[in-house]
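TL;DR need structure tokens for one chain.
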Amino acid sequence: MTKIYYLDRLIPKNVFREDDKKMIEKIVDAILNKESLDIRHIAQINFTSPASISRLAKRGGFNNFKELIFFLSNQFLNVPEEHLPNLPFVTCTKEWDVIDQYLIEALAERKVYLFGEGFCQFLVNYTYRKLLLKKIYAVNLDGVEISLIADETPHTLFTFSQSGENKHGLTKIIECKNYGGKVITFTATPNSSYSREGDISFIIDNGTSNMDQENFNLNYFYGNSLNLMEYLISRYTKKEPKNTPPSNS
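>> reply
TL;DR here they are.
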């Protein structure tokens, strides 16, 4: 079991109780062992309730449980080693040959789903319009169940979540895989559900060690995500020829 000897140095300005250290250590073990980070599972391994885990996060100075998980993941996990060329703010869980295979196939077949909520919705909208310029007609899954639109052929899902724990996004991932599709996730959180469930997961730097779900403070995740999508779409799609106006001569 992980031992944390200086909890006050790890999480300054906390108001932890005497037994909280053991609970934090069990959470770190769950992160390192790639167990489920659902609050109910964390409560179960600590023999307590989800409400108690939420209060634990508050005593640590975090707004909620997801912020606590994000912080501990960044502290105890190594960042993936595969850096993208010219994009130092992005790492990936797979090597380039695998990335090439997935992205070339997904964009060549033109069967793409997109999903994101909150601030991630404009990432979806931007990606949708950018793909449209390449004559790739993606499907925005906002409010749409895959079972209602599926044509029985596999699609590739591009889904965005800074925390990597978006509930509806995880449902879309399961639905997509049920139809034999692939999933490419974009998140700021290593070892999140998104990073584990994605066939390929891009880990995007948000410029801070704490996760601000309200997006009130400085946050590079969304801008970095746009730059990444520009790079990927440019790399894996052919340029469409410009329409040449008829000659008057």
